[in-house]
Amino acid sequence: MADVTALTFLALCLPLAGALAAPFVIRIFGANGAWLLAIAPFLAFLHFLRFIPQIARGEVVTGGYSWVPSYHLSFSWFLDGLSLAFALLITGIGTLIVLYAGGYLKGHKDQGRFFSFIFLFMGAMLGVVVSDSFLMLFVFWELTSITSFLLIGFDHERAAARRAALQALVVTGGGGLCLLAGLLLLWNISGVTEMSRLIGAGDIVRESPFYLAALILVLGGAFTKSAQFPFHFWLPNAMEAPTPVSAYLHSATMVKAGVYLLMRLNPVMGATPAWEILLPFFGGLTLVVGTALAIRQTDLKLKLAYTTVSSLGLLVMLIGFGSDHAVEAAALYLVAHSLFKGALFMVAGIIDHETGTRDITRLSGLMRAMPLTWMIALAAAFSMAGLPPFFGFLAKEEIYTALLGGGVRAITFTSIAVFGNALMFAIAFAVALKPFLGRPVETPKPPHEAPVLLWLGPAVLAALGLLAAIFSTFTHTVLSLPIASAIRQTPADIDISLTPHLGLPLALSALTVLLGIGVYWQLARARFLMAVFLRSIGHGPDHGFDIAISGLVRLASRVMRVLQPGRLEIYVTCTFLCVAAILLIPLVIHGELPHLPAWPADVRLYEWAVFLIAAFGLAAVLVARDRLTAIVSLGIQGFAVAIIFLLFGAPDLSFTQFMVETLSVVILALVMTRLRLSPDDQRPLGRKLFDGALALACGLGFTLLLMRATEAPFNDALTAFFNTYSKSIAHGANVVNVIIVDFRGTDTLGEIAVVAVTGLAILALIRIRTGSERKLAANDPAAEG
Fold it and tell me: Residue limits of the NADH:quinone oxidoreductase/Mrp antiporter transmembrane domain (predicted)?
């Protein structure tokens, strides 16, 4: 077990190692360095591949390291059928994406930086799906947002890329905060901080009065990450990223993180009316919106991006539908979508890379120049359209089997699924046929077949979509069944194969094909009608995001103008108002005002003299006509306190107080005499009275708090501790010195650092002032006199 834990930890660190090595490898080997860099995710893929027999038997693998045991915090992972499938998709497709990026970005000046970002993204997503600890899950969840921000904004010189990156970060980062609150609520409800233990606490969570709040917060995190309506707009805009990012983002990583979370929490939060209403509703709405918007697009990547939105909606709808067949259909479609969507995105990138455009209206007749790319696109399109003999056909048949029923709810969602699948059929063949068939047209670059680094990845994924369907029994055993069993937490039974099951599901598949052919045949008209319809609706959530951000910036500016007007006196006044309120209000509200003690009768003459010196110093501050006199007079108060320390047997504190007061007076005098200030106090009488009242309130608050504290019984535990251990541990006879230097060593060091920084700041202020005066005198000789 220790070896497995160490190897798993190493596998999780391999993407980080790739991120560190990427700039150096690319600098030395150029684009061919992708072959070396792909070793890291491939080794991780092989490591997780070793767990398939164990997971297929229904076992789980856990491991990790304890971090803060007292707070149940650990760096731990949890592998079952669901997390293992995601880990294999992330590392397997990640290997192909690294190779693809090597060819796609060949010669790019920032290729090394890109590979570092993609490896960090891979590591973050891998951490999300294998995390057992809530803390580990949340950290990696937010890392996916940060790394996707870097990847989407990779071409940072373009305003569109910067906007898309910021939009993705704001939407998914805000959802991450919702997820954090949801995880904290789940911790509070269940008392556990690990997913593996939370799965067994489903009844406790569902019966809690905080269940609905926790569900809404978790859905906030999942819906934003997986682009569910109305948060779907950020995902198509993320197509500003280079195509390798788009292919990876849509097939195996970030956008499926929300789907993974919902699948993982299905045993915990599922099987409730709220779950079975919210998820199918928003999932179905997202399916319809995504496919409808995809029809309108002419950019190949945007068409595929909107179909990803619709596919994610379909997965969410199936997860929330509430039947065992729906969970099994979600498991099948998860795998099928990863394979065909990764392949199609890479095909779109190949077309763009080799022709110079992705506009479907400017592409035609590429079949002769790019026959291999066309075959790959056709194979992936068959799977996306749900046609045999590809794995997408199995998924679609299972979807219709799961949704069938006699009620209004079943009919509604079956109709939505047929509509969405028909449009995805049309879009799949629009991508696979429109650019390749017909008469060749002139493109910005002469088309030709892509190099091996570009076509290898999509070819492998398209072939896997075929082989997974042909050998469906084996696929179900090692992949589909473990995924569905993990989601349901009961053994699943999937027997769907390429052999058609006569009945209503097959009839619905035929209807889907007929509708899809009709839409494809009238694709230009459907695009026009959709554009007209969307114009009639007006602005959508994407424009609303711009309005919200603009309003937030204006609000922040107005708040800053009020709270940060740039006047020091306002800041100081607000600070002391807060101090006075904090000191006085609790004492008054909670009845903790101290009892006024009787005036001591045994005050000696020299003690009266010290008090009189302090009183004369206070009077001198109040009547001083210039600031320098007030500063020097103010020092009298500090010296009086130092003498009191000396009289009452604390010579070390007295010496410290003398030094502090002397330095304070000297430094303040140096600063004030160097600054151009009015020679006397110009405040109006009302302001003086207010400031005086505020000063008295602060002083009174500190006095009352100190008096109340001295009324409490004295606890000599610390005194006994320091007296006992100062000599034996710190080897010092002076207890006060030992406390300051040893027991409070770090605190004292911090105080010294603060004083040093303050002194440097004052020195810089004086020098700036002196330099300004010299420059003024040099420019205006008359000013020198």
Answer: 131-414
